Amino acid sequence: MGNGMTIARRIAASRRAMPTAMSKIADVVTEHPAAPVELTITELADRAGTSPATVTRFCRALGFDGYTQFRVGVASEIGRGDANESWQADIGQEFGSQDEPGKVLQTLVALHVESLETTAARLDLDAVLRVADAIASSHHVDIYGVGGSGIIAREFQGRLYRIGVNAHSWSDVHEGLTSAVMQKSTSVAIGISSTGRTDETVQMLSQAGATGAFTVAITHDAESWLAGIADVSLATAEPSRYLRPDDLSVKHSQLLVLDLLYLLIAQQMFTEASTRLAASAMAVSAHRRPPRAVKNTPILEETR
Q: Is this structure's pTM higher than 0.70?
């Protein structure tokens, strides 16, 4: 399918066989044909009320390898394949294609610092401490996240495990639901999603809450689905409108919240955490090379 067919016709031909989630994406693209050019995969998923993974499946159902190829196809059809417009859509409004490296660096630093400061200002420290207390005294911690948030979930799981917290991270919804259904009142479940609308993460956190786990949402949208089902919601900064993809700034906001949690948990588990950190450092020390010797540069005597 697709040879000689416009994207609109491909959507129409496939529409009847599409699942509900994919039909929502079809609705957005049909009503706003330029949306794929103007929006990242995450933004399109949010607008359609679905997930980036579903957007990818939608693109493949139309005969494209992925979202990038789909965007190129849309751009060429509507005559918006201009390189400058594509740059702004994919890279960001604050960055020029001819900017010097120093300017790119300064712009990035300013945007990331703004994101971190906004996150710090939005955080409710009493809520953060409540979550830290729950994790420190928990029997088990489940951490759910998909895509970029899944990477952050795995990072947090590794840190908690190293200081003695029985933690697991899940990105696959089937595996996550299997774990969530086995949680109980002594468990903590954390869902990470910048938008708070990622369906898989919402499902996993909801299931964990239904089994009695203390649930935590980490999201920038306090009114989102994820925040609505959580016992506690910790706020991050909204993605910068200047950065593409959005996760360039999202990850730093999420990591700030999790770094704070990690340190507060380690404080409460001071003796055990210190012992475990020392033991793990010793365990891998044999796999680290010693510092390289610095060669002394001979100083030539001044000749007279």
A: no
